[in-house]
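User: For my dataset I need records formatted as: sequence, then structure tokens, nothing else. Please produce one.
Assistant:
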Amino acid sequence: MVEESSDSLRTFGAVVQGLREHAGLSREEFGERVCFSKHTVASVELGRRMPDAAFVERAEEVFGNTGALRRAATHPARQPGLAAWFRQWARLEQAAITLYTYECRMIPGLLQTEAYVRAMAVDQLPPIDDAQIAERWCARSERQKLLRERPNTAFSFILEEHLFLRRTGGAQVTRDLINHILGVAALRNVELQVMPLIQTSHSGLQGPIRLLETTDNYWFAYNEGQESGQLISDSKAVSVQQRRYARMCSQALLSATP
């Protein structure tokens, strides 16, 4: 998520602010009613944050269920840097209380370094220019703030050993990447596991898994392919991926951090 806001985000924020002020509520008073901090309210109103689904629904109740915010919430979009199909997941990610990630293709964006991002861009097809690479890194580095700004959110990562053995970008890029990831894994709210290259029993052979739990204790899954992504809300489909991830937690190795 880049720090710049789009016109549609600023417009949505202005609508929220106008309705709040019309109701005679301060940001703190409104935040208490919708169960979000006054800082989150300010971020939404200033167009710096995508409106969370729970935020929109609770705000609608405060403002009399006119439907205005629900309609307005269908339009906000972020500036470039995140793929269009990923933005809905990124919005949920911001307010999640639990985030699980299993990856077998590349290091997840939340754990990447700038050098790793630039190394991957070398093989990007169609090719992208320096501005697009910088834009991509800006968005990912902004997302990575979640790891430290949300200490009450539980993050879990299971990474395949071959992601490191591949040495994308060379030995030095990989060494720096490993040091960075170990630093992240030292955070109290982050758990890192590595799936060994030699593994006779593996419950994740169907592909990457991303799971999150919202503040209302709803679970979502996200699957991404080439040039596409799918947000999954069906409880049965999500449950299947939860069970696979839970099994992998017993199969993968725990990181040893100080």
